[in-house]
Structure formats: C-alpha cells, structure tokens
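Researcher: Please predict.
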Amino acid sequence: MNRLLQGDVGSGKTMVALLSMLIAIDNGFQAVLMAPTEILAQQHFNGIVELLQNTNLEVKLLTGSTRTKERRVIHEGLVSGELSILVGTHAVLEDVIKFKNLGLAIIDEQHRFGVAQRAKLWSKKILLHRIFLVMTATPIPRTLAMSFYSDLEVSVIDELPLGRKPIITAHRREKDRLSVFQFAREELRKGRQIYFVYPLIEESETLDLHNLMTGLENVSEFFSEYNVTMVNGKMKPSEKDANMQYFASGKAQIMVATTVIEVGVNVPNASVMIIEKFREVWFVSTASIKRKSRARSRAKLLYINDFG
C-alpha cells in the first residue's frame, strides 16, 4: 500500500493512523510515525499513549533532544521487537535505528519530507509488500501528480468533527487595522488566543511588506497587557518548538509568526488568525495555516491587504 490520507485538521487522521498501526501490530509487525517537528511528534505521542493506556503495547518517542540513555532503550526495543510503535522526527532516519520487523510507516505533513527521506525508512527493514501511509491537510502539486498517475492511492476524510463550524474569512484594508486590532482584543478578553502571520522576517528593498520584527513590535505595543511569543524559520528548531509550546499551553495569548506555523500543533483555543499582506504568502502555506485557525467556537480568518 502506498496511500495518501487527506483530511482537515481535527478530522481524525491520527485516529486512522493509530488503527492502521494496531492492525500491523496484530499481524506481527512494528509501526513508525514520523512528523516534521519535535512539538508535532510530541503531540502525536501524547495522543497515542493516552489512547493505548489500557493496553500492554509499548510506545516510545524519538527526537533530536532524546537523551542517550533513552535512545539506547529505544534501539534495543526496536531490534528485539518489544517496542511496537515508534513516534519521532527525522531522528528515526538515523542509520543506527534498526527495526526487527517494520510493517507500517506513517508520515504526517508529508510535504515537509523529501522522496529520499521517505525512502530511507525502508532501508530499516525492507518488506515484500511495503505499507506506506502519508497524511496531510494540504497536498502539494507533486503529491497530486503522483496520485493522478496512480503512484499514490488517495483516501479523503471529507467530514468534520461534530460541532465544528465553518471558518469566517474576511478581507480588510490597511485603513481598517485599528478596528481589526480592537476585534482581536475582544477575542482575547473572552480568553481566546490569536495568530498574526507575516510573509517575511526582514525588510525587502523591493517589496512593501510588514516584516515580522516590525509586526512583533506593533502587536506587543498594542496588546501590552498580554503575553506575545514569536516563531520564524531562522530560529533553531528547539527554540521554535519551545515558543510554540509556550503558545499551545496558553501561557502566551498571541503568536506572531511567519508561515512556518503551517506545520505545528493544533491550538483549539485560538479563534482568530490575522494574515498580513497575504498575496505574498504561498498558496499552499495560506491553505495550510488556514486550517490551523480551527477553534472550538467559530474561527475568524482576517486578511489585511490594500488591493481587491
């Protein structure tokens, strides 16, 4: 099997992945789930452990920050076959990682991994029938082409969880910025959280854009009574994960970020996402980060741009 599972954030892809892993384990195989970031891998691990807490199945997490002693335990468990499920980041691709009988490989946010990286999983233990499941909310054109030419089968979860409401999307001009910020403050007073998304980290001489640092300064000044955190692509992975976790835990009420947040944890309490100069944000990134704005109540997605 070589299958793409497409579904919106919160639609149940992880549950499908877990059920697939249990089927593989029931047939005597091991399973691995790989995510592009440490915080996302941690989210998957926590969810799987919670669902399997009444079973005797062993689940381990392997990331770049996993300590040597714990790595040794994981390596031994994989080789002996006692470790049934491994959840991790690119760390699972290390040459030292060996499986006794890998039967199912699952990759979340698959557009963040290259072909060579995905193929390397199978160097761990080649199977006669490769079972590969990749999951995404936003398949990239190359993935769609693979599907079109029958190299990749597709399953779509087209239903949303019970109670999920549609996202309200609106476009506002620069002159409306104050009213947008005031609306954001009203949401914060309700106990919600907010994303501000910017396309650049530094100023460009050719593009009239609000860069991330200017945005951070403006947001921090206007919302001085709230905690603000930042994430961008130039930060170290550990720093990005720490800041994202700070926001996900509710300790920060506002996240100022570039499109790097298109791959990140779900924050159900975040009810508003404001995207600056969205015409400069790549379409796939826009579609992906839009899916992050799913809140328990009706979410609002606001674009600020002086055209259209």
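Model: The radius of gyration is 21 Å.
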